[in-house]
Design brief:
Blueprint (H helix, E strand, L loop, with lengths): L2 H22 L6 E2 L2 E2 L7 E2 L2 E2 L8 H4 L23 H6 L8 H14 L4 H17 L6 H6 L20 H15 L11 E3 L11 E5 L2 E4 L1
Antiparallel strand pairs: 1-2, 3-4, 5-7, 6-7
Amino acid sequence: MTVFKRVAASAAMALSLAGLLATSTPSLATNVAGVAATPVSAMTVSGINVADVAMVPQSARATMSALPDFSQVSEGDEDGDYDSLADAVADQDEIASSEELRCLAGAIYFEGRGEPLAGQLAVAQVILNRTKSGRFPTGVCDVIKQRGQFSFVRRGEIPSVSPSHTAYRTAVAVAKVALAQAWDSTAGKALYFNTPGNRPGVRVQKVAAIGNHIFYR
C-alpha cells in the first residue's frame, strides 16, 4: 500500500469513527424543540465566553445561606403620637435654630413661664392663630412685635434670654411642639389671652381658662 493510500484509509477510518460517536452519544448540538442548541464552549454573553466563567460546585451551593427576610423588621413608631403633652415636650431638643422659633420661644418664656405646659402651649397657639386669622401680621415674629400687643416687647424687640435658663429651654421645646402641631392645645382658636379681671379691650368670647390666663376668641 502506498503512502497516499495509507493516508486515505486512515482518513476514512477517522470519519467512520466520528460518525459512530455522533449517533451513539448525546451531543450539546442536539435540537431542543426544533432549535439547535449552541455548545457551551461557543456561547458568549456580552463578549464573555461562558466556558471561562467559574461555576459554583453543587456542594458549595448547598451550603449557601438564604437571603435574610426583612419583611418582619420593624420600622419603628414614626407617627409622632404622644401619650401626653409632657412626653411631646420631653421629646424635643432645646436648640432654637430659627428666628421664628426664637421669637415664639421668647413669647412663651415671658408670657408663660411658671404656667403649666398646657398654658405655655396655649400662649403659642394664640400667636400661631393670629398669623392665620387675616387680622394680624402673617409672621410669628411680626405678630409678637406688633405695637401694643405684648407688654414684654421693648422698642419693637424681644428681650434676649440666656439659652441655658431652664425655663427658656422648656419654652423652646413647647414652641417646637406648637409649630409641629404635635399636640392639640385646649386654647383652640383663641386670639387673645389675659389675666383674670383684665379682659381684652375688644369684643371677645371666652374659650378656656388655663393656669393664670383666660383665653378668648
